[in-house]
């Protein structure tokens, strides 16, 4: 058990552009973490915000950041050699299966965490189908890297500019019909995860999702990321939870709360 | 059975109370705390309009305690009334609303708005160290302003009124007496102790707000002394809060004079079921020391 939550500091040793407005920052810093866990990246005087760890080998880890607003823009200004400060790692992780058929379903930066999941699963003898979706060809994340690592990649795009035209959930439905996975793991937009969890429950396939809520303290005291009706904390009992548990959460796929605690509907 | 107790006529299954500001925002999170054994729940402090709160870091911990400056984020009284309703539909545990305000009038107005709410008590937070001077400080730092805020709420309160005090005053007995005379039904002591932590590498205070309120094990001796002193000064019951981690700590606090104990930061070190754990441990101490009811322990350290 941690006894403290003080800031840690590493150096940025490598920056990779994954696609436009998405970069992976590799940070040299001692860290013990599991796929699915997150850190709070800290910019003193500004904020500290949650990002999934997208790789970690004990002495170096990475986060993959989408440029969406003021904080992520500030991270994008960082250069190799700069200090990267953070808190964590926090939260639950994916249960990496052994010698099973795993399908991952990723959308947006979710593919980053899943690329690590896929890699660990493959090392444990799993066969992996890596389903990844994006609006258009240019926004597809991690497909090349995962393919190069010897896994099967299934791409979907909204406009059909690469892979199958349609949604990741269509690809998962096809996969279940043709070559049913033993287990499914998904990270991405909430509605996507909602449909994946539903499909897996109907098909009786164990599934894990990563439920993102506005986070503050990161260690379970401030109450910001508690979900209705169960009240559990997504920074502590989550973000990675089973699909069955997620489907018991009344707000899953319906709403989340802003930093003041007010409900914001999805859709 | 040994742990059943009463606070201002409110029956509690045990003397552990969730302290304000730890989870306690939504009906669901309060329900979870009740499931985990809390005898009563204090909600996160709210004001009229709501507040955004500070950016991160809002809280950090070190080996001896926790430092926080959350900045009192809340969604305001209107939406909080909904959460109260929802909580009471699912859960029978006693619920205490906590309010803070910038003026005596706002305190009175908030109390009025809580008139019909299904709460068991109102706690007025006149002691939060994390806000600019216009919040909290003026009220709890002088017996006159503390009494004014108390009296303003008392006039409109339909339920017992608890007043939460800061330890950061030269003489807490004087404040305690003033709020008792102004109509407080109980005193909650203590709120956090002002503090700061610095990060060497970035050469900056760690909390966004720079300074914050210290809680957890580090402040237990301060809390014990305050509760001890307050017990000598007033007749109304005390909700003894600050650094309670174990059943042992709780019994110590009650011996100092607390009728019930508030538990906050321990949720971090011992997790959400800390309430169950503390109760089990209290029961063991009571048995070993030969008490038949936890009520017998209150104030025993005063000889
Ligand atoms: C467990 C978890 C893992 C995440 N992993 C990644 C990741 O790997 N890569 C990535 O790019 N993003 C990730 N995010 C989202 C990331 O935290 C936000 O994109 C970031 O905080 C945006 O800040 P901003 O100032 O750039 O944009 P803003 O304009 O401030 O916010 C854009 C959106 O980000 C969300 N957001 C902002 N602050 C927070 C916060 N404190 N907690 C949660 N959500 C917030 C809000 O929903 C908002 O709509 C993750 C979020 C969570 C909860
Ligand atoms: C994260 C955090 C938030 C808090 N928010 C409030 C609050 O909104 N209102 C209040 O009266 N006290 C607040 N407090 C103070 C606690 O209620 C309690 O008085 C203090 O933490 C000491 O108890 P503890 O050592 O058990 O945590 C907060 C404390 C913490 C740690």
Task: Report on the architecture of this protein.
The complex is a heterodimer of chains A (267) and B (303). Chain A has a seven-stranded mixed β-sheet with strand order 10-9-8-7-11-12-13, with helices on both faces. Chain A has a six-stranded antiparallel barrel with strand order 1-2-5-4-3-6. Chain A is built from six helices and 15 strands. Helix content of chain A is 22%, strand content 34%. In chain A, a hairpin with a 5-residue loop joins β14 and β15. With 267 residues, chain A is α/β, with parallel strands linked by helices. Chain A starts with 7 loop residues before the first strand and ends with a strand. Chain A has two domains: 3-90, Translation factors (Elongation Factor Tu (Ef-tu), domain 3, Beta Barrel); 101-265, Rossmann fold (3-Layer(aba) Sandwich). The relative contact order of chain A is 0.13. Residues 132-136 of chain B have low confidence and may be disordered. Helices cover 36% and strands 20% of the residues of chain B. Chain B is globular and about 50 Å long. In chain B, α5 (143-156) runs parallel beside α6 and α7 runs parallel beside α8 (247-256). Chain B is built from ten helices and 16 strands. Chain B has an eight-stranded parallel barrel with strand order 3-4-7-8-9-10-15-16, surrounded by seven helices. In chain B, strands 5-6-14-11 form a four-stranded antiparallel β-sheet, with no helix packed on it. Chain B has 303 residues and is of the alpha/beta class. Chain B has one domain: Aldolase class I (TIM Barrel). The longest helix of chain B is centred in the C-terminal third of the chain and has 16 residues, at 274-289. In chain B, α8 (247-256) links the parallel β15 and β16 (260-263). Chains A and B meet through β4 and β6 of A and α1, β5 and α9 of B. The complex binds flavin-adenine dinucleotide (FAD) and flavin mononucleotide (FMN). Flavin-adenine dinucleotide binds at residues 38, 49-52, 63-66, 68-72, 109, 112, 212-215, 239 of chain A. Flavin mononucleotide is lined by residues 19-22, 44-45, 59, 66, 68, 70, 72, 98, 125, 128, 164, 191-192, 215-216, 219, 241-244, 262-266 of chain B.
